[in-house]
Here is the input.
Amino acid sequence: MTNREQPVVRAATAADRAGIQRLLRELHDDDADSTTLPEVRQQARTFVAGDDDEIHGLVVATFVDYGHEPYGVVEELVVDPASRGSGTGTALLAQCRSWLGELGAEVVFVSAISDEAAEFYLQAGFTRCTGPWLWSASRAT
Here is the structure.
């Protein structure tokens, strides 16, 4: 490919497995041999908390597994201000982590946008990593 040619981007196929593994070794050394690519397992789920009349909170989570350290991400977690402190957020997070654990997530990531949110996740057993990101083993309670 010359500098002027645009790369062709396409969906991976089973025939690409050796090339995928070769490139993933750049990131994961020999562990890339255990990947399941080109098949990638991805799922998302939204959980809500409330009653028949009103939703008081929600959590949106995603799960990704390409055969090397499956992980989950808490994409959004919000509780109505009037319901904060009632255990709603804790219950939503517990359900989210349980679902991710059932799928095989080895770690769960979340980005806290405020000190208050970070404190909530820290109290739930998450650990700071880089920048606003925190992480937790999904099987931790």
Q: What stands out?
A: Residues 88-103 form the longest helix (16 residues). Helices lie at 17-28, 88-103, 115-123. Strands lie at 41-50, 55-65, 71-79, 107-111, 127-128, 133-136.
